[in-house]
Amino acid sequence: MGPRGSRRWAWGGLAVVLTGGLGLRLWGIGQGLPYAYNADEADHFVPRAVAMFAHGLNPHYFANPPAFTYALHWLFAVFYGGETGAVHALEAHPGDVYTLARAAAAVLGVAALWLLYATGTRLLGRGAGLLAAAIEAVAFLPVFYAHLALNDVPTLAPLTLSLLGTAGVLRKGRARDHLLAGAGLGLACASKYTAGIVLVPYAAALAARYLQAEPGAPRTLLLRSALGGIALAGAAALGAFLIANPYAILDYRGFHRDLVHQSSLSAEAQGKLGAPKDGGFAYYLWTLTWGLGWAPALAALGGALSVWRRERALGWVLVAPVVLYLVLMSVQGRYFGRWLLPIFPLLCMLAALFALQLSAVLARALPRLRVAIVAALVAALLAQGLVYSVHSGLVLSRADTRNLTRDWMLAHVPAGAKIVLEPVAPAAWVREAGPRARAARGGYRWHKYTVLQSWISAGGALQARPTRVVGIEDYERTLGPELIGRYESKGYCWVVSGSTESGRAYADPRAAPLSIAYYRALAKLGEVVYRASPYARGRGPVAFDFDWSFDYYPLAYSRPGPEMTVYRLRGGLCA
Prior knowledge:
Elements: H1 3-26, H2 39-44, H3 46-55, H4 67-80, H5 83-92, H6 94-124, H7 126-138, H8 140-144, H9 156-171, H10 175-189, H11 199-211, H12 219-244, H13 247-250, H14 252-267, H15 280-310, H16 312-318, H17 320-330, H18 344-365, H19 370-396, H20 401-412, E1 418-421, H21 435-440, E2 447-448, E3 453-454, E4 468-469, H22 482-490, E5 494-498, H23 499-507, H24 513-525, E6 527-532, H25 548-551, E7 564-568
Parallel strand pairs: 1-2, 1-5
Antiparallel strand pairs: 3-4, 5-7, 6-7
Helix pairs in contact: 1-6, 1-7, 3-4, 3-5, 4-5, 5-6, 6-7, 6-9, 7-18, 7-19, 9-10, 9-11, 10-12, 11-12, 11-16, 15-16, 15-17, 15-18, 15-19, 18-19
């Protein structure tokens, strides 16, 4: 097949990959709406993008860099016609606003697939580039997180753009390649700080061009060329970063404060109840077996070992950043599966490289089965991701257990009743849906107990005044069986509990004995009047986990959300 035929074949395959990748990312995009149940999605991007219409473009928040927030701000400005339309839409139709933001994240995720194909083609050839894009198109983690208006998946677009420039630096060394690598780096860092890892492959490509120059080449000219490339890339990176995050300079004090705070949070010891305790490196290796898939993860390992024989410079470009990133992230105090996404493009290219190398070896031994061998290897690399991403689409397209619970409460719990709602749902969950009802009852359907205050002493005794106010992550540490009597004495007769809260305590009962005692007392003293399960009939439950309890990876899930239970208390004022 000639070059033109090869391109046509690759373009046809790429169209399938991009179309399929977009479909997987849009399927179930309305999960949970009109409520944003992911705390980061609810707090960090969409509301801040809308708030910019009122207080200006300074985000006043840099714990997450603001590039994606700015992108949403301008998208809302165009789509809703400015401040009045955007603010009204978020207030009256939040589901529509979040759907638009999620669609933007999904489209940027698909753009990253196209850029990965281009990068892989430049480094490894069209077949490897297409296979790398296909692996990322179906891999569970990039598919699932494209359903949320978070910066994780959108960051893959500028990050992979930088890798495309780096590939050009390694192969050609043109000025535009340095500019592309730098611009992508700047935009990626302005989207997510950990995306700065793409500086490592760029430095490796630059060093390779200098060290692997032909014998006799004038070193002075090579050094000048390298320094010139660095200057171009540095200027492009700085310029792109400041365009996407201008208040890093204009509000440097706020930027530096939030950056230091975010760094301290990531580095602190795991303080979350129920968090994994096996260590970050083991956790991330485990994450690769499901977030990327067993076959792609093992193939990436094979590629990381074999690439050095093919081309040493390519090993430094593709392998060194992965190893460094894993080490750096593993020594942090907190770890979550989605934090691995910045190295997924590199892993996908390594997996594709190894698969094609293996197919070439097998095809030489069994030439008549060449097509079957390639098909089998491709199927092996894509099967797990495709199965679980399709399952994710099915799950996310169904009603969330928290929405089902709210619908039941609307029908069975009187308006104005006092309820205890664990922090499994946003504040809007208890608000009235229509403007007339909001006006009639001050905006709220039920009176909600303030759950983020601790009334229990270290010894378990109920205090006359709250001992402290806590953050959402410490809710379980406020609980004790004595609270149930307080609920009943104050007339809070309905208790709404979710397994993503109680599961934290049961995952580490020694760390939260009072919390365990609380849930046992609640089950004994409260009557279960409603329960909504996320599991398929005869499946589950899934043990609490900070990934699987929120991204619904196990096939036991049938719908999104925690297991929800509504209790009716019968003592005190609830008799």
